Request: fold
Amino acid sequence: MPSRDLTQACSILQEAVPRLVGMYNGRYSDKMARVGEVLRTDQEQLAKWQQGRGLPGKIVTNADGTRIKSAHQAALFHGENASHAVDIDVLSPDGKTYVTHEQAYWPLIGLATAVGIHSGGDWMKPDFPHLQCVYWKL
Reply:
């Protein structure tokens, strides 16, 4: 199972993500944000890539974990061997139910910019829960 441990992310995300989560949770009482996936192994990334390509589910990534690496995989980049991406979970206020409608994730786009990181929510094919360092290019 992918890690939720923010200490496995680069130092930029370790500083920015708690601020973003705090800002989100301070603004919305009908839902809450928390750190979701941080670090994935090559095998975990391959399993994500296989969704919609032989495994049930829709396609969620173009990074297969070997030929194309994900920012969620540990990589030596900018002097840090760490994950350079974090997914955010949005849940009901009691933390028991995942909120899946895109509108719940829209605020992450502006909040990410405010704390100096990038949101996958403004990509051509949006990945609303995804946050990454601005220097990471796939």
